[in-house]
Amino acid sequence: MNHTITVAAPQQFDNHTINAVWEKAQNEFGFYFFKRDHMGDIIAKHDYGKKNQYGWEIVRVVTENQQASEGVEHLLPVHWKNVPQRGD
């Protein structure tokens, strides 16, 4: 199954959506403000949109059989180092 990954600009999401996507990250035992993305890298809630040690972005993942939607079901929190380059 092929996936299309698009990188969304940080200003594209409101706080409600950012919080909903944050909740999808894997819990890091004993911490609320630190979690792990799908690759196992640690991200920090307050570092959304930053390119630092714990920075992360939101990516939209859609299979070729799905239509892109604006819902959070297709959004994932990803450490900025694991995000494909915009335009890929």
Can you walk through the features of this model?
With 88 residues, the protein is mainly beta. It has one domain. It has 1 helix and 6 strands; from the N terminus they run βαβββββ. The chain has one helix at residues 15-22, and strands at residues 3-7, 26-28, 31-36, 42-44, 56-63, 75-79. The strands form 2 sheets. Strands 1-5-6 form a 3-stranded antiparallel β-sheet. It has a 3-stranded antiparallel β-sheet with strand order 2-3-4, with no helix packed on it. A hairpin with a 2-residue loop joins strand 2 and strand 3 (31-36). The model has no long low-confidence stretch (mean pLDDT 84).
Task: List the main descriptive attributes of the protein structure presented here.
single chain; 88 residues; mainly beta; 3-stranded antiparallel β-sheet; globular
Structural class: mainly beta
Tell me the fraction of residues in β-strands, as a range: 25-35%
- Total number of distinct structural domains: 1
Following the backbone from N to C, one meets helices and strands in this order, namely: EHEEEEE
Gyration radius (Cα, Å) is: 13 Å
Main sheet strand line-up: 1-5-6
Distance between the termini: 18 Å
Write down the overall mean pLDDT: 84
Q: Classify the helix fraction into a percent range.
A: under 10%
Instruction: Report the uncertain regions.
Output: none
Count of helices?
1
Shape by Cα distribution: globular
Number of strands: 6
Sheet with most strands:
3 strands, antiparallel
Task: Give the topology, please.
Blueprint: E1 3-7, H1 15-22, E2 26-28, E3 31-36, E4 42-44, E5 56-63, E6 75-79
Antiparallel strand pairs: 1-5, 2-3, 3-4, 5-6
